[in-house]
Amino acid sequence: MTSRDFDLFTIGAGSGGVRASRISASTGARVAVAEERYLGGTCVNVGCIPKKLLVYASHYREDFEDAASGYGWTIGERRFDWPTLIANKDREIERLNGIYARLLDAAGVKRIEGRARVVDPHTVEVDGRRHTADNILVAVGGWPTLPAIPGIEHAITSNEAFHLKEMPERVIVVGGGYIAVEFAGIFHGLGASVHQLYRGPLFLRGFDDDVRTRLAEEIRKKGVDLRFDSSVSRIEKTDAGLFAELEDGSTLEADAILYATGRTPLSGDLGLAAAGVELDERGAIVVDEYSRSSVPSIWAIGDVTDRIQLTPVAIHEAMCLAATLFEDAPTAPDHENVASTVFSQPPVGSVGLTEAQARERFGEVDIYRSTFRALKHTLTENDERTMMKLIVDPQSDRVIGCHMVGPDAGEIIQGLAIAIKCRATKAQFDATMGIHPTAAEEFVTMREKVE
């Protein structure tokens, strides 16, 4: 044991920081964690959890209108109350904040409220008080960014969307990533008129092209005004709400304009550069395969490293860090075949390589794709189409990509992610009996290759 105050001082009590602190403390290490905002970070407070709750809420309208009557249900008068949803969401988040606090306390982690800054490779200062540590972990996450256009101060980000006092009746969502797609679906499902604008030719860059194309078709069928190659040039506040002028000269009016055009690492004003920590051009902390920065005693995990911005990835990196530092088992995080989902409407699930990535890496690949109307919709007028796709390396017969657009995509892909991780072959998929009648069985019954 050294003469320093702690073996590990964590800056940031999000999913990654909390996990690293807890697991490290469980080994007997002396650990402290500093947080200036809220326990649980983005995911718990203004990300994954509240967003999924809003997605659940927004899907009731479609179930009432499209599905109920087909199954013999007569639905009476309906009314949605935004304040009730937000109040219930806030109560659940408060409960989760308490759980995080109790987990840290039970593990023996010292919680410190306030903004922490790195003074030197072994010293952190919080509200004027200095703490020394053998190792410093930076896990402060990221923050939404806004473009510098006239009137941008009238726009909101996903952070503010969770705390709106009233439900906006007209919404413009700017962006083409998963946050933009999800919020467009949320507001539309809750009854708002929604325009979604993306500056590129097709949204969800990085996902498989068949997924992107299918989802765009389904979103438009539901009534969202989805516009590609389109962006806002200026915003003006008027008596009628917000006025947005687009780069092509056209205009739109809205009650809220939500920007989801990217997030940047929250590394500013932490004293990192002065301490010798290398940052890239976006402000992300540059780390090696074990999450160590350019300063040997300073480590970083999660979104502040800008590797893969997903909560389970930050948690995985945290577990690896604890093993590396305090379990005498240096462990590098594995960022290969990370499954992901977009809680769009319909949702997307994906694991492994896209078709474009697979062709670049393997050359020739076999493609299996199926598009169908889910059984649930056959008694309704809903013509939503599910799409499933497998990408196979013909040399090894290994399934190297699995993608889906349709109900429960995230739940289904989670199981298939295990198969991909285990390097399962197409023959093994084919030998697996499907569960009938489910959509998921399609993944083990696709036999015809796409020509």
Keywords summarizing the entry:
451 residues, FAD/NAD(P)-binding domain, Enolase-like, domain 1, seven-stranded mixed β-sheet, five-stranded antiparallel β-sheet, 21 strands
Characterise the protein shown here.
With 451 residues, this protein is α/β, with parallel strands linked by helices. The chain has 3 domains: 6-142 and 264-326, FAD/NAD(P)-binding domain; 152-261, FAD/NAD(P)-binding domain, CATH 3.50.50.60; 340-444, Enolase-like, domain 1, CATH 3.30.390. It contains 11 helices and 21 strands. It has helices at 15-26, 41-46, 48-68, 82-107, 158-161, 178-189, 209-222, 311-326, 355-362, 409-421, 426-431; strands spanning 6-11, 31-35, 110-113, 116-120, 123-126, 129-138, 142-144, 170-174, 193-198, 225-228, 232-238, 241-246, 251-254, 256-259, 263-265, 298-300, 340-342, 348-352, 366-372, 386-393, 398-405. Strands 1, 2, 3, 4, 5, 6 and 16 form a 7-stranded mixed sheet that branches. Helix 1 packs parallel to helix 4 (82-107), helix 1 packs parallel to helix 8 (311-326) and helix 3 (48-68) packs across helix 6 (178-189). The longest helix has 26 residues, at 82-107. The chain is globular and about 70 Å long. The model has no long low-confidence stretch (mean pLDDT 96).
Euclidean distance between termini CA atoms: 64 Å
At CATH level 3, the topology of the largest domain is: FAD/NAD(P)-binding domain
The multimeric state of the shown protein is single chain
Mean pLDDT, to the nearest integer, reads 96
Total separate domains: 3
**Major beta sheet, specifics?**
7 strands, mixed
The radius of gyration is 24 Å
Structure annotation, total helices: 11
